[in-house]
Amino acid sequence: MKQIAVFASGTGTNAEKMIEHFSGNLSARVALIVCNKAGAGVLEIAKKWGIEAILVEKLGFFGPKSCILPLKQRNIDFIVLAGFLWKIPAELVAAYPRKMVNIHPALLPKYGGKGMYGMKVHEAVIAAGEKESGISIHYVNEHYDEGDIIFQASCPVEPGNSPSDLAAKIHVLEHTHFAKVVEWLLS
Ligand code: GRF
């Protein structure tokens, strides 16, 4: 049974979809939630599903050992970033080569990089007059949003769409595809 860790800092709707998707699966399960924000919704989700959650502090996360040890102690095989806002330390990337993926709410390589998260992404897409946006699932490397792209799905940006309209469409795409793509990568 493969052990998945989901890193999330926010509401955690993608984390919950991931937990749900693997809950009846015999080959993989979400075994751990890693969060960097006390009070984040994802911690409640972990509690609800009876999944262990650890809250990481900057010093521990970016320190000499980063959070590799707690992951290895729990036999974590694969890491899923679902709205985790800190950059992943190089040692952690090296400890999980091609075993760590992120989801980004736009069609990379556009609208990615430092500072491009949450509503800022959707605002930029709309301001640029893009006719479509979407999701990108990609491997994680040492640079924000630059690892190899594994999967993309798109949706139209319609005239009059607000950033929150677009965010809602993108959430639907994320919830539809993310867990399936992770399952495929693990198989
Ligand atoms: C998602 O839109 C994801 O693309 C981004 O962070 C958001 C997390 O949303 N990286 P949620 O907390 O899973 O609802």
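^ 5-O-phosphono-beta-D-ribofuranosylamine complex. Residues 2-186 form a domain with the Rossmann fold fold (CATH 3.40.50.170). The two ends are 11 Å apart (CA to CA).
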